[in-house]
Structures are given as structure tokens and as C-alpha cells.
Specification:
Layout (H helix, E strand, L loop, with lengths): L5 H7 L22 E9 L8 E6 L2 E6 L9 E4 L9 E3 L8 E3 L19 E5 L4 E4 L5 E4 L4 E4 L15 H9 L33 E2 L11 E2 L11
Parallel strand pairs: 11-12
Antiparallel strand pairs: 1-2, 1-4, 2-3, 5-10, 6-7, 6-10, 7-8, 8-9
């Protein structure tokens, strides 16, 4: 048996690959109760790509992804209200063509989809299900009772500025518990990776694995599609 792959060790939460929780400001979830709050501050979150808005709801501090155009002192409503950047409401109440973010996968889960800087989904249609066009272009159906925040997430220009040097990339990835170096499997020892070993850069066998393969062997191409042998397209 070889060692666990780096991605597997990171998933287990080992000390070497644990996410730096002291750099994360707070968990971002949509408020469970309806009401209104005031934006008190806009802060940087090292573990996220976008800034956070500090909102006070009934004396309690809540953190939300900052939408473009949001400002300190602005009132944020949770529930039925106007279609204004930063407001939170059910998808059934949001008109078609409106950009939204931090979308719930199930009503009440606090938001699971579209949470990266500069991203947003667009409401395509409403009915038995609400259809959203995701940032990838996929059309996805949601329960009309799921909630989302209106607007585009701030921080869209984060990729415009070049990193300049390798050290800047190291610090950027460290906030997300990621490594800036990538070693190929064929360069490792046989004990460290299924592609390792040998005195030449060659996998030594098929690098396509079954989707149901064991975790230690699941490397290379996963469940590769069959070639079209009929000539039809």
C-alpha cells in the first residue's frame, strides 16, 4: 500500500494541509430571520476572494459577501423588498434577468452556490422551479423557496493585477491551504503515487481508472469516455 495522495491528506484535515482557520473572518450564511440591517463596515477576508460586509441585524453582527455598489450605512433587507444590490429574498420574488449570488441549494441552508469574487448567476425563468444560469453557463433548477442575495459579488478585478513574483503566489494560495508547487506522479517514488517508480518518465500502464476504483488508485483519467467507433457524430 502506498501513501495517501496529497489531495487525500488535505481532505482528512492533517496538520500539514489544514485550512488556516485563524485567517478566516467568519462563516458567511444568509440570515434565518426576516428583517432589516445596516452595513457597518466593509472588511477584507484573507481566506476569501471577495470582501465581506459587516451587517448588524437587531444588535447581532452578521457577515455577508459584499456585492458591487454596496456602501457603509446602506440598509439591507431580508425578505420581500426592493430589487437592490445586497438585499436577500426568495428566488420566486426575483425578476428574470436579475444577477444573484450566494444561492441556497435547499431552503434554509444559508447559501451554497456562486460565492467567488466577480461571479453571479442570472434568473432565467420562474415557475414550478426557478431556473438560473450559473457562471459556467449551466442552467440549474432551484426550489422557489430558496433564497439568494441580489447583485454581483465585489472583487471582479482581482485577476487583472499580475502577481509579479512567485512569493506573491505562495501567500495567495496559503490563505486557501493550497500548495504552489505541483509534482507530477511519474516523478515520485512508487510508494508515493501509483504512477511513480521506474527509471524513465512513463506511467507504466493504463492511466485511465474506473470511477469506482479505490481512492489510492484513483489517479489519471477518471472514467474516460469511450471512443466513437461507429463514425457517427
Amino acid at each position: 500500500m502506498g501513501k495517501r495522495l496529497r489531495t487525500q491528506r488535505r481532505g482528512r484535515g492533517t496538520p500539514s494541509y489544514r485550512s488556516p482557520s485563524h485567517r478566516h473572518v467568519a462563516d458567511v450564511k444568509l440570515p434565518s430571520l426576516e428583517g432589516a440591517g445596516v452595513v457597518k463596515d466593509l472588511i477584507q477576508a484573507p481566506g476569501r476572494t471577495s470582501p465581506l460586509a459587516v451587517i448588524e441585524f437587531d444588535g447581532k453582527t452578521n457577515y455577508q459577501l459584499a456585492a458591487e455598489g454596496i456602501r457603509v450605512g446602506q440598509t439591507i433587507t431580508v425578505g420581500p423588498g426592493s430589487i437592490k444590490s445586497g438585499n436577500i429574498m426568495e428566488l420566486s420574488s426575483i425578476p428574470e434577468g436579475t444577477p444573484v449570488h450566494n444561492i441556497e441549494g435547499m431552503p434554509g441552508d444559508g447559501g451554497k452556490f456562486v460565492k467567488a469574487a466577480g461571479n453571479s448567476a442570472s434568473v432565467v425563468s420562474r415557475g414550478e422551479y426557478v431556473v438560473l444560469e450559473m457562471p459556467s453557463g449551466e442552467l440549474k433548477e432551484f426550489n422557489p423557496g430558496c433564497r439568494a442575495a441580489v447583485g454581483v459579488i465585489a472583487g471582479n478585478g482581482r485577476v487583472d493585477k499580475p502577481l509579479g513574483k512567485a512569493g506573491a503566489n505562495v501567500h495567495k494560495l496559503r490563505s486557501k491551504a493550497k500548495s504552489n508547487v505541483h509534482v507530477s506522479g511519474i516523478a515520485m517514488n512508487a510508494a508515493d503515487h501509483p504512477h511513480g517508480g521506474g527509471s524513465h518518465p512513463h506511467v507504466g500502464g493504463p492511466n485511465c481508472q474506473n470511477r469506482n476504483a479505490s481512492t489510492g488508485q484513483k489517479v489519471g483519467f477518471i472514467a474516460k469516455k469511450k471512443k466513437n467507433k461507429t463514425g457517427k457524430r
